[in-house]
Design a protein that fits this description.
It contains seven helices and twelve strands. It is an alpha+beta fold. It has two domains: about 130 residues, Jelly Rolls (Sandwich); about 80 residues, Arc Repressor Mutant, subunit A (Orthogonal Bundle), CATH 1.10.10. It has a four-stranded antiparallel β-sheet. A four-stranded antiparallel β-sheet has the order 2-7-4-5. A four-stranded antiparallel β-sheet has the order 9-10-12-11.
């Protein structure tokens, strides 16, 4: 069975094309807290998470770390280097022990030269992803702090939440500062909004967990 068949990035490929992708794929493991690559390094590989969680980070002018995104099972990291031989634009560090599928940029390039249809389909998929990302940026810029925090909780709940009876358990190791960096806000603002949601019995927060009781009412804030 293809190791990449269930990966959305390759969803447009045929069975035969998936077999060709499998031939250039390898697997590796990373410990929790290990860097997969650093911002500014030569981008010669891209990765798909088989099992685990990874955060993509970037250093900003004041020296703080900004979390650009969080990835988990079946997500692709640094896909831009599949077609661009530039450096990694951000760093990737594991949040848990992680298994990943690795692709060498030069091997994919050689494969595309032999089978151009693969390149066309991957570019089509990347274009769709870019359009969705641009829309998310526009939406974020127009929302107030409560809407941005609510949107982040919805995103995390849908991607990482575990449904238990009438609640969603969000068991992910992110501090309030890290949550704030994901939406371009301050820790104080995120703390205030989470406190507001908690006072309305929409959520309950603890050191490493957020329990969501009323996701529909949180959605109303967006």
């Amino acid at each position: 069975m293809s190791v990449v068949k269930e990966i959305p990035f390759f969803s447009l490929l045929t069975e035969k094309e998936l077999d060709l992708i499998d031939e250039i794929a390898s697997e590796t493991e990373f410990k929790k807290g290990e860097y997969i690559f650093f911002e500014g390094e030569e981008g010669d590989k891209f990765y798909i998470i088989k099992n685990g969680q990874v955060k993509l980070t970037k250093m900003i002018k004041n020296g703080d770390e900004q979390i650009l995104n969080i990835f988990s099972d079946h997500d692709i990291i640094a896909e831009i280097v599949a077609f661009d031989k530039g450096n990694y634009p951000a760093s990737a560090v594991t949040m848990t022990d992680t298994e990943a599928i690795v692709f060498d940029q030069s091997e994919l390039e050689n494969l595309i030269l032999k089978h151009p249809s693969i390149g066309v389909k991957l570019l089509r998929e990347m274009s769709g992803r870019l359009r969705r990302a641009q829309q998310n940026v526009r939406d974020l810029a127009l929302k107030d702090s409560s809407a941005r925090v609510a949107g982040l909780l919805i995103f995390l709940a849908e991607k990482y939440g575990k449904k238990k009876k009438d609640r969603i358990i969000l068991d992910i190791s992110l501090t309030q500062q890290e949550l704030a960096s994901m939406i371009g806000s301050s820790r104080e603002t995120v703390s205030r909004v989470l406190g507001q949601f908690e006072s309305e019995d929409l959520i309950k927060t603890s050191r490493k967990k957020i329990i969501i009781y009323k996701l529909d009412k949180i959605k109303a804030y967006t």
